[in-house]
Design a protein that fits this description.
By secondary structure, this protein is mainly β. The chain folds into 5 domains: about 35 residues, no CATH class; about 120 residues, Jelly Rolls (Sandwich), CATH 2.60.120; about 120 residues, Jelly Rolls; about 120 residues, Jelly Rolls (Sandwich); about 100 residues, Jelly Rolls. Helix content is about 5%, strand content about 40%.
């Protein structure tokens, strides 16, 4: 009988006679030639459990892990302490798998570091998960394994520890709008639908999630963006228009105690590379509480334009047109909103202005006139007041607060080639508006920048914070033409007409010229006279009347010369005022004051009825003090 059969028979007898006290002796005979110590590794191998296959110290040697519905654990060991174990998760079929990878030390002294490989052609650093201590599990909550592909990871020890470990991989069934790893780089960005929302977790220090919106999904619209806060975690959202993530279009800090809200994000259509949304956290993270990135379309605007972010810099200024009324938000206390309007050069060529004097002379001479004949003198009552050409652009910018959360400042940033000076206006209170008043502008680019000098604590941009309007007053008729501060610069104010003006700065004076009596130019007949002499003309009754030019009266020829006063007319002057204490002076053509009117007080109209001799006069409108970018109207009429 063979030795094995003999041992088997002896063992059967022992079990048959169960009460025999020689059981231990028999067992010693049976196993006397076998090592009494059986390792856990040998036990798992005998039970058919999966185990790493050495060597697996490089990516090419990675131990495969085939993902399937019912999966057991994978076992391995870090031994020696410098050991590195690579694994490659594989999935067949046409569906990506989202899995949770957990590595649990079997020895309390082993401290595991878990690394997730970043796929791609470039030499990307692997993502490190080293959160737990010795004897504690490390995990990656959500990992994408592409259909028909692999996702590799590797393990190493921390602080020279070694020992056994167990790998458990569990499939995550719900990951429709949740960020999954690896997505720290643009080429691995998670798709982001707009409008839509996405949830995610910061599962390690300095984690970041990258989301991508392709160019074909973008359209010229305004969206409301909201990123929820996570208590104890400071976040940053950056938006890029290029895959290299070199310079963000905008950067939004998210405090740990309140969400970040941008109600007016512009996702312009036609972006060649699409848009990348990059969410990142600092040293702190939270695997239990997620963030939520939500993007929805902004409600439609009615009668106004919605300010579009980003517009914080010169390169991202929001383009507007004169006549636009814009409503906007300051999404943080440090937000800056910049607007730009452009005045293009006129396409029309310069035309030669018609000369009224030439027309008058041509009419006087007739078609048969002698071109060599000496030109007669023309008497033009308006000669001292050159006719001014109204500018194409007289710009006003009005800023009106729509809430009480901010005290505003407005900067005027004209074109560098313009003679305009940069300036800043600052409100004294949250309710005060700001006005950039009456700037005569030529071709160029002009920027207006808004910011908050003070912001209430706890402010959230839930509704519009301001309205800004860009107006071209040159389109209004009867508008004054600046400068008109001196008689040489005065605006013509024909009898029976009115003009609109502004006292736009402290000390501003507006001069208007008007003529009492005939105001058309006439040709002076070639009948000259010596100084003090008179030219006799026969009237209808045969009497001789001697006229002298000017307002010095009429000398009558005859035995005695009798002075007659110049003709006069009754003139009514009316100043329709504004909130300032406005008044006006009447000044003759030699600079003498004829009347000074300032009786009604602030906000009231001033009127004057006066008999004036024929001639040229000026109206000087001014305020007792201060300035205001509100119009007044001045008119003159005669009986």
């Amino acid at each position: 009988m063979s030795s094995s059969w003999w041992k088997f028979g002896l063992l059967a007898a022992v079990f048959f006679f169960g009460g025999c006290d020689c059981k231990d002796r028999i067992q010693s005979l049976v196993y006397e030639d076998v090592d009494r110590t059986i390792t856990p590794t040998q036990q798992r191998e005998e039970q058919g459990e999966n185990r790493e296959v050495e060597p697996n110290d490089t990516p090419e040697q990675a131990t495969p892990i085939v993902l399937q519905r019912d999966m057991g654990a994978m076992y391995g060991s870090i031994d020696p302490a410098q050991d590195v174990d690579w694994f490659a998760m594989e999935v067949g079929g046409e569906e990506d798998w989202i899995v949770e990878v957990t590595v649990t030390p079997q020895d309390s002294s082993l401290d595991i570091a878990l690394y997730l490989e970043v796929p791609g052609d470039a030499d990307y650093a692997p993502l490190l998960y080293d959160i737990a201590g010795a004897g504690e599990a490390e995990s990656i909550p959500m990992v994408r394994v592409p259909a028909g592909g692999t996702q590799r990871f590797f393990l190493s020890s921390v602080d020279g520890t070694s020992g056994e470990y167990r790998i458990n991989i569990r499939r995550r069934l719900s990951a429709g709008a949740v960020a999954v790893e690896p997505n720290d780089y643009p080429h691995l960005a998670s798709p982001l639908e707009i409008p839509g929302e996405m949830q995610g977790f910061y599962d390690r220090p300095h984690d970041r999630d990258v989301f991508y919106v392709p160019a074909e999904s973008l359209k010229a619209a305004v969206y409301s963006l909201e990123l929820s806060n996570i208590a104890g975690v400071e976040q940053t959202l950056e938006i890029y228009g290029d895959k290299e993530l070199e310079s963000p279009l905008m950067s939004i800090p998210v405090a740990e105690n309140r969400p970040a809200i941008i109600p007016n994000l512009s996702l312009a259509s036609g972006a060649e590379a699409g848009l990348y949304f990059v969410l990142s956290a600092g040293e702190k993270f939270d695997r239990d509480r997620s963030y939520r990135l939500r993007i929805i379309e902004h409600p439609p605007a009615r009668g106004y334009i919605v300010e579009r972010e980003p517009n914080d810099t010169e390169g991202s200024a929001h383009l507007v047109e004169l006549g636009d009324r814009v409503r906007g938000y300051l999404h943080t206390s440090s937000d800056v909103d910049r607007f730009r309007f452009v005045i293009e050069p006129s396409d029309e060529g310069e035309e030669d202005a018609q000369d009224d004097d030439d027309e008058l002379l041509a009419e006087y001479r007739g078609s048969a006139g002698d071109p060599d004949e000496e030109e007669p003198e023309i008497d033009d009552p308006w000669a001292a007041v050159p006719e001014k050409e109204a500018p194409e652009y007289v710009v006003q910018v009005h800023l009106r607060p729509l809430g009480d959360a901010h005290r505003f400042a407005m900067r005027w940033l004209p074109d560098e080639e313009s003679s305009e000076q940069r300036r800043e206006l600052q409100a004294e209170s949250e309710e005060e508006g700001l006005i950039l008043c009456n700037h005569v502008l030529g071709p160029g680019e002009y920027d207006v920048e808004l910011r908050a000098l003070e912001t209430q604590e706890g402010f959230r941009p839930r509704s519009f914070d301001y309205e800004i309007q860009f107006m071209n007053l040159a389109t209004e008729s009867e508008m004054e033409v600046e400068p008109n501060n001196t008689p040489e610069q005065a605006d013509r104010l024909p009898m029976g007409s009115s003009r609109v003006g502004y006292i736009s700065y402290d000390g501003d004076v507006d001069l208007f010229a008007f003529i009492v009596g005939p105001d058309e130019p006439v040709v002076v007949e070639d009948e000259t006279m010596e100084e003090g002499s008179a030219v006799a003309e026969q009237d209808g009754d045969g009497d001789a009347e001697d006229d002298t030019d000017g307002d010095e009266g009429v000398a009558v020829a005859g035995p005695a010369t009798v002075w007659q006063p110049p003709p006069t007319e009754n003139v009514q002057i009316r100043l329709e005022g504004n909130r300032l204490n406005l008044g006006f002076e009447v000044i003759d053509d030699e600079g003498g004051r004829v009347a000074n009117v300032n009786r009604a007080g602030p906000g009231a109209d001033e009127e004057l009825a006066i008999d004036l001799p024929h001639g040229l006069y000026y109206l000087a409108v001014s305020a007792a003090s201060g300035s205001l970018c509100e119009p007044y109207r001045i008119s003159v009429a005669a009986d």
